[in-house]
């Protein structure tokens, strides 16, 4: 038993060291904010193009992600002239993870302050997963700042609280405290129809973020932001989006926030992204829908060339 405990400790230490050594592809800067009377640092990458076209793209990450997983998208956009701004939202990645009342309005306001600090008046916005919910709130709050809007398999296309059982915050926190490198990997395997070894780096990126500043602090922020997604639906407001919009949907995606709390029967009735993508397309005037066959929740990782071709064609 002692040998097993020692082996488990060694494995955990190795995984921790591996995750901590993971580096973002571009220099990380910090914006100093005051939120609810607390000093907070917001991490971000601001990557200029060597051949600038005068346009900027803002990349908004998902719930189980951070700026790391945008690295290839940043490079592709840079190569075609776009400046790229990639925040780690407060509560994620290399940003501080304070105990706050998290809201999409707060995250959108933080992002606007970041753009203002950089002197950027107009952006194209790409929001993936939870970043799609944030992109929606950002576009509704700051419509004159958004030129074009791109959704990549956004969550929030359903009102989860109407069919996912309520989970008290303390219970959600206790559940998330059980997270390990292997449990995160098992969860992320559901993002893809077929798992590949190169996807493991994104498990490491999520695991690394949970060590900043420490596991319990990061996990509490993660639990609070699960509650934010559950309690603050945007599904009723897509019809108010006025910006030209591209919707990219992986047809194998079946993501549901809180899916583990559902019976198989209820889960089968929800998270149908082929149908949800068509519904979103109908909700937003001036929108275009691209359906990617055989693709799961993260097209920009699974099929980067198809994803970037769609994005660059839309941004022309």
TrEMBL record:
Protein name according to UniProt: Alpha/beta hydrolase
Gene Ontology MF term list: hydrolase activity
Domain of life of the source: Bacteria
SUPFAM superfamilies in the cross-refs: alpha/beta-Hydrolases
GO cellular component: membrane
Keywords, in A-Z order: Hydrolase, Signal
Pfam families noted in UniProt: Abhydrolase_1
Boundaries of every AB hydrolase-1 domain copy: 56-209
Secretion signal span: 1-19
């Amino acid at each position: 038993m002692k040998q097993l405990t020692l082996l488990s400790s060694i494995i955990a230490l190795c995984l921790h060291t591996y995750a901590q050594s993971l580096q973002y592809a571009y220099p990380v800067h910090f914006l100093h904010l005051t939120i609810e009377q607390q000093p907070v640092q917001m991490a971000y990458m601001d990557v200029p193009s060597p051949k600038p076209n005068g346009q900027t793209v803002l990349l908004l990450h998902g719930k189980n992600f951070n700026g790391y997983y945008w690295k290839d998208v940043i490079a592709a956009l840079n190569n075609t002239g776009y400046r790229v701004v990639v925040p780690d939202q407060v509560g994620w990645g290399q940003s501080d993870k304070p105990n706050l009342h998290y809201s999409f309005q707060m995250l959108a306001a933080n992002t606007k302050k970041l753009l203002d600090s950089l002197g950027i008046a107009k952006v194209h916005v790409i929001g993936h997963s939870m970043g799609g919910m944030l992109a929606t709130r950002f576009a509704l709050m700051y419509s004159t700042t958004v030129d074009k809007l791109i959704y990549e398999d956004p969550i929030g296309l359903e009102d989860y609280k109407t069919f996912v059982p309520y989970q008290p915050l303390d219970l959600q926190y206790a559940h998330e405290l059980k997270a390990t490198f292997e449990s995160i990997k098992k969860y992320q395997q559901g993002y893809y129809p077929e798992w590949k070894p190169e996807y493991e780096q994104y498990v490491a990126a999520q695991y690394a973020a949970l060590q900043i500043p420490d596991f319990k602090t990061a996990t509490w922020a993660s639990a609070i932001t699960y509650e934010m997604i559950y309690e603050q639906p945007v599904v009723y407001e897509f019809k108010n989006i006025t910006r030209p919009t591209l919707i990219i949907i992986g047809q194998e995606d079946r993501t549901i926030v809180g899916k583990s709390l559902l019976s198989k029967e209820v889960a089968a009735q929800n998270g149908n992204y082929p149908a949800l993508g068509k519904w979103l397309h109908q909700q937003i005037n001036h929108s275009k829908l691209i359906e990617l066959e055989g693709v799961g929740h993260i097209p920009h990782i699974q099929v980067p060339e198809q994803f970037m071709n769609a994005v660059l064609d839309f941004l022309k």
